[in-house]
Specification:
Number of domains: 3
CATH topology of the largest domain: Rossmann fold
Structural class: alpha/beta
Strand content: 15-25%
Shape: globular
Largest sheet: 6 strands, parallel
CATH class of the largest domain: Alpha Beta
Strand order of the largest sheet: 3-2-4-5-7-6
Number of strands: 20
Oligomer: single chain
Distance between the termini: 76 Å
Length: about 550
């Protein structure tokens, strides 16, 4: 059958099971928008390409298949690079399709011309431009495979606008399923020997390519083998905090008891993750290249094994096959020990009750209330900022895949991620927690939530500044405030102006009823919560940080 390049492209997306995508329209790929018209694909029209690419990245996290984003050339692509960077650092499958100038105009610096292979060369796993419409099935199939296989990540595909109008006769590619590297019997046999010898082993989970069944198999194995399990930074949705073997999160400002436990372990099993800078505490937790503790590193990409830390045992495997192998492994009956009970008790004590902070609104108490109020499957989204510290410490993620947060530390992530999460799971409660500086990075996507009736609840924590930067500023240049103060809008009024539900929350007691009213409204909602600027972290005030810096001279 003869088809235009645009029709061929859309048919490839359908063949890969794509039923939803995010975009900002552009004249460079109008032919694709036309080809999508009668397909039934849920095309989410966003207000800025950064928000659209974040939505696609969130879809990749939620589904395990590449999230899809379409943007136009030049400014559209540069705006969308935010989501590409998140997908790269977070190991998320994603494909960004970029409209491109006509092929005959190349090399003249035509209107909005960019060389995307160079632009995205370090950000994407693969960046390619399709010159021949007859190769669309080949290249799109490869894009899906590259995005999902090994360590997942983003792929960028540029689409010259004239190529999309070419008529070709070409067969569709088959649905792509990524290769699932599995541990060899020798790997598992060696691991079993190491486990027999270990007296204080520990598991750390991270990365992507996890399924809920994998997490359950790991939990059962950890229980049988009396082994504590911790998650790496912003991977709390991989292992239930209610499980008796859960030991906490290895992220920013971790529990000192967890740090001591990891350093005191005689076998550390890292499954799926990279043990990157924040989880590794500035690369100071373990030695490099010799970790200083027997390390078993399990990762689906051979390129990540031994990249920083040289493991005692490197196993190239996706989490699924490895956890399945664990399920079949019968560890030696552990000696009587209270290490898992102690580890879990330390996590519970660390995350139980926040101490009092300056101000009439106690943000920590609001997080604890959400912890008790929300169902297990509620999805919590956040971007970057000191406000997130309370989430990581005091909220307990009990359901698989219920945390959407960027390990890359990208501001503005929470709101657009929440829009996508609610679109994928309309039956779930979806909450975005965002700082005042954080939310303004992508606040325009609240209009997208309104347009599609996506009833998310955005909790805005307003302390009138870029809090994380101010914290570092006071440590390094105490009392010399520069470029960190903010003057904010009335977020409740802003929500109402968009057509949503908005309320101001100035006292702790006001939070719960306001949140319930937000849910009952059935509208996208914003709660404007006023946080005292002194309440900079769960344990430190702004003045205390400044005074310590001044005392150091």
């Amino acid at each position: 059958m003869s088809r235009t390049g645009a029709r061929v492209l859309v048919d490839q997306l359908l063949a890969q099971g794509v039923d939803r995508l995010a975009c900002v329209p552009g004249e460079s790929y109008l032919a694709v928008l036309d080809a999508l018209h009668d397909t039934g694909v849920d095309v989410i029209v966003c207000r800025q390409e950064g928000g659209a690419s974040i939505m696609a990245e969130a879809a990749g996290k939620l589904t395990g298949r590449p999230g899809i984003c379409f943007v136009t050339r030049g400014p559209g692509a540069t705006n969308a690079s935010a989501g590409v960077h998140i997908a790269r650092q977070d190991s998320t499958p994603m494909i960004l399709f970029v409209g491109q100038i006509a092929r005959r105009m190349r090399g003249r610096e035509a209107f909005q011309e960019v060389d995307y292979s160079q632009m995205f060369g370090d950000l994407a796993k693969w960046a390619v431009e399709i010159d021949d419409a007859g190769r669309i099935p080949e290249i799109v199939a490869r894009a899906f495979r590259v995005a999902m296989q090994g360590r997942p990540g983003p792929v960028v595909v540029a689409l010259p606008e004239d190529m999309l109008d070419d008529v070709v006769t070409v067969a569709d590619a088959p649905r792509i399923e990524p290769a699932e590297p599995a541990p060899s019997p020798a790997d598992i046999e060696r691991l079993a020997t190491m486990l027999v010898r270990a007296r204080s082993p520990m598991v750390l989970v991270g990365g992507s390519r996890w399924r809920e069944a994998d997490s359950k198999r790991l939990a059962a194995f950890a229980r049988r083998s009396d082994m504590p399990v911790a998650n790496s930074f912003r991977r709390a949705g991989l292992y239930s905090s209610d499980h008796p073997n859960y030991a906490g999160e290895l992220g920013i400002g971790p529990n000192p008891a967890l740090m001591e436990r990891i350093r005191g372990s005689d076998l550390l099993i890292m499954i799926g993750g990279r043990l990157s800078e924040l989880s590794a505490q500035g690369y100071g937790l373990l030695g490099i290249p010799n970790p200083g503790v027997p390390l078993v590193h399990v990762h689906p990409d051979a390129g990540e094994l031994g990249r920083v830390y040289q493991p005692a045992l490197a196993i190239q495997s996706a989490p699924g096959p490895f956890c399945a192998a664990l399920a079949a492994l019968e560890p030696a009956k552990p000696a009587a020990s209270s290490r898992t009970e102690t580890a879990h008790a330390a996590f519970r004590a660390w995350s139980e009750t926040p101490g009092p902070q300056p101000g009439a609104f106690q943000y920590g108490e609001a997080v604890v209330w959400l912890r008790e109020r929300l169902p297990v499957d509620a999805v919590i989204c956040n971007g970057a900022g000191n406000f997130a510290t309370w989430i990581h410490r005091y909220y307990r993620f009990r359901g698989f895949g219920t945390q959407l947060a960027p390990t890359s530390g990208s501001m503005g992530y929470g709101l657009p991620a929440a829009v996508m999460a609610k679109r994928v799971h309309p039956e779930r409660i979806v909450v975005a927690l965002a700082g005042d500086g954080d939310v303004m990075m992508c606040v325009q996507e609240f209009a997208t939530a309104i347009q599609y009736g996506v009833a998310i609840v955005v909790v805005v924590l307003d302390n009138g500044m870029y809090g994380t930067i101010r914290m570092h500023q006071e440590r390094e240049y105490p009392g010399r405030v520069s470029a960190t103060s903010l003057r904010n809008p009335d977020f409740a009024a802003l929500a109402a102006a968009f057509g949503g539900h908005g309320e101001r929350v100035e006292r702790t007691a006001d939070f719960a009823p306001a949140f319930e009213r937000a849910l009952m409204s059935g509208l996208p909602a914003m709660l404007h919560c006023f946080v005292d600027p002194q309440a900079l972290t769960p344990t430190r005030t702004l003045d205390a940080i400044r005074d310590e810096a001044l005392a150091r001279g």
